[in-house]
Every structure is written in structure tokens, then in C-alpha cells.
Amino acid sequence: MKAVCWQGANKVQVDTVPDPKILNPRDAIIKITSTAICGSDLHLYDGFIPTMEKGDILGHEFMGEVVEIGSEVKRVKVGDRVVVPFTISCGNCFFCQRDLWSLCDNSNPNGWMIEKVMGYSPSGLFGYSHLFGGYAGGQAEYARVPFADVGLFKIPDGLTDEQVLFLTDIFPTGYMAAENCNIKPGDIVAVWGCGPVGQFAIKSAYMLGAERVIAIDRIPERLQMAQQQAKAEVLNYEEVNVGDVLKEMTGGRGPDAVIDAVGLEAHGTDFIAFHDRVKQVVRLETDRPSALRQVILSCGKGGHVSIPGAYGGFLDKIPMGAAMNKGLTFKSGQTHVHKYLRPLLEHIQNGDIDPTFIITHRLPLEQAPHGYEIFKHKKDNCIKIVLKP
């Protein structure tokens, strides 16, 4: 089969690789009909996530048709049309039973690696390094899905791939980010980052009752989408002092909740951001937390800080004094996708949201290397790419 394979920092290519096989009686094989490039994939592309190996298959947003099942798979059958949560979960462990699906105890065979860095292992992830299990990803023609009865979600007739594809990651991720804000009627929410997750976080904040959502970015087409499609008020952080303007926009109180939808490759305009870049190059710091610093300082007293943006390691100069003295509440984590699949599907079916608004590019799988380049460098007004195997 054809698959998008990591070759090293800033290089991917479409190779012919062996077809996946059933390895465990709870496995299924799906023929992929749609997949996507995620902002988190750029962290792999840029070489910031360790334990990637040449030839690893990328991709964690994918869906398709079941073509083979293991002997113990009972809830899905060959021919079912399914989406695949990017977090791999067993369904039976302490964490899965408590709807904390991305913390599954049984799906990361390389948990011992990540425990050395994080203390405990989260779940395995598709196409996201050997730290997270070494699972082949879904930017390919076929994929093996472990724990298939738990990890495959059947899609009813009448919905297109593009309407439901983002249930695999970015729609639930944006929704959980907003849910973590503990939004009350009348609340003002500020969202840093108007990429795909940020756009869904804005839409979700409104669905959960926010009165106003203010979006912060520097890319004109992303700010335009946030304003026109997601109905946010927008700020370009290269043009204004975000903290000062947020105070003015909120009557001096500050946002009730803030969302960091940027993560470890944040850009900044001050000396500390330059310092982050220097330290990252020489591996004295793994991440660039410019956005995280700003959300903490900008959040109003007693507010909530939600962090869906991916961080990989160690951060410098985090203003914990501000966080503690302002009484801020933090919530973060990889998304518990399984928890949100059914309710978010209902939102789509009811017409509350059309997730296709986010798509700017549709490419055949063979053009994935071009897709990574225009997505990384924000060329051709690229915000979200769907790949068709």
C-alpha cells in the first residue's frame, strides 16, 4: 500500500509499504477513505518529538471502511463505515472506565519509555512516535486498529466523510478545550491560536454558552475565518499588546477563561520568545511557550486556563506566581475523544455545526509532502488539508 512516511526533520515521502495485518484477535483493518494533516503532525515534521524512526507512517485523523476483523471483534463488521479516535484505548482499564480515554493504561506498549519523562504513560496514539506506542498512522491506504470494538465508531448513512472526519481529533479537541473552561452564561473566553483546533474551540465555546469569544493570532486568513465563520472578535498579536487590549475589551476584568490552542511551537514578538528559539536549537529547552505565558498573564482573576495545545517536554519562565496569586484553575490533556463522539455527532446531525468550514485544501495522498510544506509555512491560505488515498 501507499503511505506517508517520516524520513527525518522536514522530510516526508509517500512510499510503498507492506499492508497491515491482524496481529491480535481484537484488531480490525480499515480501508482509509479520508485522512488529514493535523497541526500536531508538524511537531513530528519539525523534529521536536523524540523516538521517531525513518519510515514511520504518519497521521492520526482518519476514517474509512472495515475490511477485516479479528476473531474477538463483536461490535463492528466488515463493510461498516467508521471514524477512528486518535487516542488508542482498551475500554476496560481504570481510566477508560472513568471516561479518561487518553490516559488508557493498556494501549501504550512503550509506556516504560515515556514514564522516564512524564512519570506515568498516557495512552498510545496513532502515528505519533515510539514514545506513544509506535503505531502506524492513518495517512495511508489501510490501517490496523487495535481494540477495534472500542476504537471504531460507526457512522450513520447520510453524512459525508468531510462532515465526520474531524470527530477523530480536532472537533472533540476544540470542544473539550471549551468544556474545560467551565463556561457560565455571560462569560468571555479568549482563544490563542486560530488554527483548526482554535476554530473549533471558538465554535464550541459559543455552543457551551459563552457570550463573547476573542481570538488571537497573526495570520490574516486565520483571523478572517475566526471572525467570519466562528463569529469571534479578533486580535493580531503583532499589531497590539494583547494583555492591554483584553483588559480594555473586558472592562478591566480580563477574560473569564483562556485557551492555549497553540502549543510547543508558539511564535512570539519579544526577547523571551527569541531566547526560547535559541535554547530550543541547542536543546536546553524543548518547547516554545510564548502563548502559554501570555494566556496565564491575560486571564482574569479566578479564571480557567485550558491547554489543548500540545507540549512535549520542558518549558522555561512560566509565570506560576501569576497563576497562583490570581487563583487560576488549569485543565489540559490529550483529548478523551471517545467521550465526545456521540454528542458531537448529534450536533452535526442537528445542524448546530458544519465541520467542513475548516477545510481549505483537498489533495490526493501522493501530494502529502506538498501539503506538509504549505501547511507548515502557511502558504496558499492553507488552514486544513484533507488527503484522499
Automatic annotation (TrEMBL):
Q: Pfam families this protein is in?
A: ADH_N, ADH_zinc_N
In its UniProt record, a GO molecular function of this protein is: oxidoreductase activity
Top-level EC class: oxidoreductase
Q: Which residues form the Alcohol dehydrogenase-like N-terminal domain?
A: 25-157
Q: Does the keyword Metal-binding apply?
A: yes
Cofactor list: Zn(2+)
SUPFAM superfamilies xref list: GroES-like, NAD(P)-binding Rossmann-fold domains
Domain Alcohol dehydrogenase-like C-terminal, chain residue ranges per copy: 196-265
The UniProt record lists the EC number as 1.1.1.-
Its family remark reads: Belongs to the zinc-containing alcohol dehydrogenase family.
Please identify the protein, giving its name as recorded: Zinc-dependent alcohol dehydrogenase
Species whose genome carries this gene: Scytonema tolypothrichoides VB-61278_2
